[in-house]
């Protein structure tokens, strides 16, 4: 087993949550440990960043930021996630200096959720050029109001199959 995984197992008491399932490891960590754990993993064999993304937990008033790494020769996957406050101009450190491909993932998360990745020099519109409105992947984004306000189009209301 990789030294990086052993290190995280030692830290599992400090983690908020730890789950191991065969060759897949999940860690929920504190925001303050996000960059340091990423650096350690990079230094200990996790050279392949598969993805970095976010989840809007509106009921918990937080965003979950996560990244998934892989060591090909050992076929080990690891997901590291942290929670940050759900507010305007929220920031977290960029992982783009560790894994250059993180810059594009962070760019998308910035554009869709409004989360700023400090140190990422690519934070400019990727999909939403000339966008006027809140980040569209936030759960409080009302696309019907956006379409009505910006395009003067009234969208019909749809009822779900369960009548709600």
Classification by helices and strands = alpha/beta
What share of the residues lie within helices? Answer: 10-25%
CATH topology-level name: Beta Polymerase, domain 2
User: pLDDT under 50 segments (min length 5)?
Assistant: none
Describe the biggest sheet? 5 strands, mixed
Strand order of the largest sheet: 1-2-5-4-3
Number of structural domains: 1
CATH architecture heading: 2-Layer Sandwich
Binned strand content: 25-35%
Overall body shape: globular
Number of strands: 7
Please explain how this structure is put together:
The chain is an alpha/beta fold. It has one domain (3-123): Beta Polymerase, domain 2, CATH 3.30.460. It has four helices and seven strands. It has helices at residues 3-10, 34-43, 102-113, 143-151; strands at 17-21, 24-29, 48-57, 62-71, 76-85, 91-93, 116-118.
Q: What is the element layout, followed by pairings?
A:
Layout: H1 3-10, E1 17-21, E2 24-29, H2 34-43, E3 48-57, E4 62-71, E5 76-85, E6 91-93, H3 102-113, E7 116-118, H4 143-151
Parallel strand pairs: 2-5, 6-7
Antiparallel strand pairs: 1-2, 3-4, 4-5
Outline:
This protein has 164 residues and is of the alpha/beta class. The protein has helices at 3-10, 34-43, 102-113, 143-151, and strands spanning 17-21, 24-29, 48-57, 62-71, 76-85, 91-93, 116-118.
